[in-house]
């Protein structure tokens, strides 16, 4: 659907009061009033707005909820769609002032009172260019935003931590090395040296394993609780603002008025050569909003998340070789240590194919403003003319990300979105 409408610019009107004074003929003094109610409306300042949008079939299927204050609609799932709005419009800030000037006429003088429009001299200027990003740029930014906020990040971090622990944190011989080392320490003659150079490294390994085990349990339990639910996420960067160096134009010009009556022009022609200054400012705001959901094979996780040794006191630094030996046959470590390798491999699969978005959008709002200001004598009477090119756009994601076509999904991915009730609309 595409709609277009005009955004007309109509500047303020103006009026001129002339009081003529003939000293030799006082009865012939007269007042003449000129008025303009139509205002200033040059063709090159007339704007427009264009709306392009794709409606979502689910929009009319919203559930209606009743509240004490009245009825309201409660959307469920994805009811939006891609759209863009571009518009250009002109605004005069200020510019309605009053000035008085006098000048000779024949055998007397005249006093001119001008009340109304004073606009900077900006004749036949054009609107600034738009600064909106392309769809490819927004798709790329959207994928980057998803990578920062997706709920599987904590699982992927845990996967990396466990892999690091297996690679560097545990002894090469695993749990058996702990058992053999502890037995040697129990039989050592020099208890102090055994504690300092033998037992403390073993205890450090045990503590690292227990801390990783505890973190694994906490993360997995939360992950299981969120499985199948919608987890909403939002990500936004600070607004980017760029100001270009100002450009001088129209040297020697006077402001635009609705009437030129001689002495009034001289109000702005004193002092240095006047000019109009154009200043351009561009702002860009982007943000992501989406709802994630995922499904996990719980059976394999329940074994990992079982906890039977939280209160064993093994993380305490008061442990001794004797207390460590007393926890033989070390089944708590073996039962956890062995499945970790399989868990790390499965995490990557669950974090990719298992995670989908019920909906996801990237929004962008860009504004380019050209501000024209007049600089010269009595410039405080002159308003600022602002020409604006503005764009709002929203890009919709596929359940597996931005820039991904439904036709490119694998059979496994299609089965996942079908199981979660997500349909192509």
Could you tell me the number of beta strands?
15
Q: Termini separation (Å)?
A: 16 Å
Strand content: 25-35%
Total number of helical segments? 8
**Mass-distribution shape:** elongated
Averaged pLDDT: 75
The helicity comes to 25-40%
Give the SSE string.
Answer: EEEEEEEEEHHHHEEEEHHHEEH
User: Describe the biggest sheet?
Assistant: 9 strands, antiparallel
Structural class: alpha+beta
Output the radius of gyration: 38 Å
* Low-confidence segments: 63-76, 302-317
Task: Give an overview of the whole structure.
The chain is an alpha+beta fold. The protein has a domain at 2-133 and 224-310 and 342-419. It is built from eight helices and 15 strands. The strands form three sheets. Strands 1, 4, 7, 10, 11, 12, 13, 14 and 15 form a nine-stranded antiparallel beta sheet that branches. Strands 3-2-9-8 form a four-stranded antiparallel beta sheet, with no helix packed on it. A hairpin with an 8-residue loop joins strand 14 and strand 15. Helix 3 (175-186) runs antiparallel to helix 4 and helix 5 (298-305) runs antiparallel to helix 7. It is elongated and about 130 Å long.
């Amino acid at each position: 659907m595409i709609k277009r409408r005009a955004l007309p610019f109509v500047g303020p009107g103006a009026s001129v009061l002339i009081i003529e004074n003939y000293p030799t003929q006082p009865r012939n003094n007269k007042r003449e009033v000129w008025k303009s109610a139509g205002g200033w409306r040059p063709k090159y300042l007339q704007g427009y707005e264009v709306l392009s949008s794709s409606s979502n079939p689910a929009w009319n299927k919203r559930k209606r909820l009743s509240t004490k204050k009245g009825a309201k609609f409660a959307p469920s799932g994805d009811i939006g769609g891609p759209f863009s709005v571009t518009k250009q419009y002109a605004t005069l800030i200020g510019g309605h002032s009053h000035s008085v000037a006098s000048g000779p006429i024949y055998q007397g003088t005249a006093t001119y009172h001008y009340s109304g429009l004073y606009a900077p001299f900006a004749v036949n200027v054009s609107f600034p260019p738009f600064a909106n990003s392309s769809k490819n740029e927004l798709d790329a930014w959207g994928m980057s935003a998803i990578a920062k906020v997706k709920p599987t990040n904590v699982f992927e971090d845990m996967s990396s931590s466990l892999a690091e622990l297996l690679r560097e944190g545990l002894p090469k011989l695993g749990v058996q090395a702990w058992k053999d080392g502890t037995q040697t320490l129990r039989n050592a003659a020099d208890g102090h040296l055994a504690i300092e150079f033998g037992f403390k490294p073993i205890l450090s390994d045990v503590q690292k394993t227990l801390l990783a085990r505890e973190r694994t349990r906490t993360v997995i339990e939360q992950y299981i609780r969120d499985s199948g639910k919608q987890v909403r996420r939002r990500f936004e960067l600070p607004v980017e603002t760029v100001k270009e160096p100002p450009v001088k134009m129209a040297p020697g010009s006077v402001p635009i008025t609705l009437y030129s009556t001689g002495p009034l022009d001289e109000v702005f022609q004193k002092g240095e050569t006047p000019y109009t200054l154009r200043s351009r400012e561009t702002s860009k705001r982007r943000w992501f909003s989406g709802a994630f959901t995922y499904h996990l094979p719980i059976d394999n996780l329940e074994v990992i998340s079982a906890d039977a040794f939280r209160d064993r006191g093994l993380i305490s630094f008061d442990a001794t070789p004797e207390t460590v030996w007393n926890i033989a046959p070390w089944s708590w470590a073996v039962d956890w240590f062995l499945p970790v390798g399989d868990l790390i491999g499965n995490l990557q699969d669950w974090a990719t194919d298992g995670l989908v978005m019920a909906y996801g959008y990237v929004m962008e709002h860009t504004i380019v403003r050209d501000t024209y200001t007049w600089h010269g004598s009595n410039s405080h009477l002159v308003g600022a003319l602002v020409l604006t090119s503005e764009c709002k756009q929203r890009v919709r994601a596929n359940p597996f990300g931005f820039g991904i076509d439904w036709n490119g999904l694998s059979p496994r991915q299609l089965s996942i979105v079908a199981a979660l009730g997500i349909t192509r609309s």
